[in-house]
Amino acid sequence: MAGRARAQAIRPRVKPGAALRLVAQCLPLLALSACLTAEAVPEIPAALQGRWGLVAADCEPGRDDAKGLMTVGESTLTFYESRATLDRLSERGETQVQGSFAFTGEGMAWERLVSLTLNEDGTLTRSEIGDAPDADSYTYLPCP
After folding, report:
1. Which residues pair with 109 in a beta bridge?
2. Tens digit of pLDDT for each residue in 106-129?
3. Alpha carbon of 103 to those of 23, 75, 89: distances in Å?
4. Distances from the Cα of 114 to the Cαs of 13, 39, 100, in angstroms?
5. Contact call for residues 96 and 115 (beta carbons, < 8 A)
6. For the CA atoms of 107, 83, 142, 120, what is the dihedral angle to 10 degrees?
7. Quick one: pLDDT at residue 38?
8. End-to-end CA, the chain
9. Which helix or strand (DSSP H or E) is residue 34 part of?
10. Which of 71, 94, 124, 130 has the most CB atoms at less than 10 Å from its CB?
11. Which runs of E-coded beta strand occur in the chain?
12. Residues of the chain with pLDDT under 50
């Protein structure tokens, strides 16, 4: 009996439905805080997404040596020996994007400011912007 009396003394007395009302009052605040803290994933425009090759042979399916192939995803660039993830957008349009990309490959990691532009002739230009000695521009053909 002593154990039962003790359990009743420890259990808080809550009016029926009070907990449900408290939860209902807090839900809008929880939803708002989730919206404020959630970070949107940067997105590369759909017109730029797909497979692109420096030369037509890079687009041939099953090639092991397609070193000029670049696959553009919603927030990634995938190359023969490296991968880049878009960290921050600085410019975005329907046919152009520029932002900071985090690259990894061959045991290394580096950051690069990159611009992707869909040209009027259907090619895609990838430009690496900055003072890096290997910063350059490359023009890709769309893979069928």
Report:
1. 104
2. 999 999 999 999 999 999 999 999
3. 44, 12, 15
4. 61, 21, 6
5. yes
6. -110
7. 46
8. 80
9. helix 18-37
10. 124
11. 50-53, 69-72, 76-78, 83-93, 96-105, 108-118, 124-129, 137-142
12. 7, 23, 26, 30-38
pTM of the predicted protein model: 0.70
Position of tokens 């023969």?
A: 80
Tell me which H or E stretch contains 31. Answer: helix 18-37
The amino acid at residue 142 is: P
| All structural domains of the chain with their residue ranges | 2-37, 46-142
Copy the structure tokens of residue 108. Answer: 């290394």
Encoded amino acid at 106, one letter: E
| Contact between 117 and 95 (Cβ < 8 Å) | yes
Of the candidates 28, 46, 45, the one whose C-alpha atom is nearest the C-alpha of residue 93 is 45
